[in-house]
Amino acid sequence: MKVLNFGSLNIDYSFEVDHLVKPGETESSSAFLVTCGGKGLNQSVALKRAGVDVYHAGAIGKKDGKLLIDALLKESIDISYVTKVNSNSGSAFIQVDKNGENCIVLNGGANKLIDEEMVDYVLSNFDKKDIIILQNEISSLPYIINKAHKKGMEIVFNPSPINPECLSYPLEKVSIFFVNKKEAEYLASSSTDVLENLKAKYPKSKFVITDGSKESIYFNGKEVMKQKSLCIKPVDTTGAGDTFLGYFLSSYIRGDKNPLYRASVASALACLKRGAKISIPRLGEVEEKILEIEEKN
Fold first, then answer.
1. CA 96: distance to chain centroid?
2. How confident is the model over 17-69, as pLDDT tens digits?
3. How far is 142 from 158, CA to CA, in rounded Å?
């Protein structure tokens, strides 16, 4: 079984601010950081740091993409399916306030130039039962979902950032949805009985739903599992969801009984550092924290 992440690659520009800027307001930042990100890249890094060998497919700009290639290679992520195109790479402008909350403006750049020819080439190298991970930050997603489903791949979809177009995708072919509470409500078209509505809309799918500092839920097709979040004081929540996905899938692939636990610990640790990719903990850090928790209990 191979794991493919067909996802976004962004250059992140992060600004540390006292509070998130309001309309018409100008605010000075106390710190500025340029890093590599994009939900795709972050999730590949999280998977690799959690112990999963991952192939990354995506598109970068010919002029500014070296930074992203170097970041993937540094993590020993396979870049055989990363394509250079005549465009700027994707970018994100991120505000992080004193409480660790963030807001993000995305520019798709090369991420929006993924076409069917590129998809056909990438997926020709993968087979039935391989896992493909997708986010809502690249083009040709309906085509990728249909093509991957036809090949019998297990489709993991994180529909973020969620939008009306997302609802037109062939979501009934998704194997596992990764969503936060707001995204779950959007998909379910309801703020009540969310999981039951999701199960009714997508009866063949599994669901992982996160609710920030409260808890996470996993419906595995038969039963519902719940995990309380660790009590921490976050510095920056950017990348916490991507960390959760990577560590959950690593546990899922291994067949752990409760894949939520390690993911919950890892995502909490990710909130204690600024930045997205840079904050994703390595497996040793997560295992050390788990041991510390178990000794206290």
1. 18
2. 999 998 999 999 998 988 898 999 999 999 999 999 999 999 999 999 999 99
3. 14
- Any residues with CB less than 8 A from the CB of 42 and at least 6 apart, and which? 239, 242, 243, 276, 277, 280
Instruction: Name the amino acid, one letter, at 141.
Output: L
Long-range contacts of 278-284 (CB under 8 A, 24+ apart): 278/35, 279/236, 279/238, 279/239, 279/240, 279/243, 280/42, 280/45, 280/46, 280/49, 280/239, 280/242, 280/243, 280/246, 281/49, 281/243, 282/49, 283/49, 283/50, 283/51
β-partners of residue 211 are 215
57 contacts: CB under 8 Å, gap ≥ 6: 4, 5, 6, 7, 81, 82, 122
Query: With contact defined as beta carbons under 8 Å apart, do 34 and 163 qualify?
Result: no
- The alpha carbon of 130 is separated from its chain's Cα centroid by a whole number of angstroms, namely 18
Q: What is the Cα–Cα distance from 245 to 249, expressed in whole angstroms?
A: 6
Angle at 134 between CA 128 and CA 135, to 5 degrees: 170
The shares of helix, strand and coil residues in the chain, as percent rounded to the nearest 5, are 40, 25, 35
Count of Cβ atoms closer than 10 Å to residue 204 Cβ = 10
Pick from 15, 164, 180: nearest CA to 92: 15
Closest CA to 37 of 123, 111, 100: 111
Asked if residue 111 has pLDDT above 90, the reply is: yes
pLDDT tens figures, 199-241: 999 999 999 999 877 899 999 999 999 998 777 666 666 678 9
Nearest Cα to 63, choosing from 89, 90, 98, 41? Answer: 89
3 state SS of 97: coil
Q: How large is the C-alpha radius of gyration of the chain? A: 18
pTM of the model: 0.91
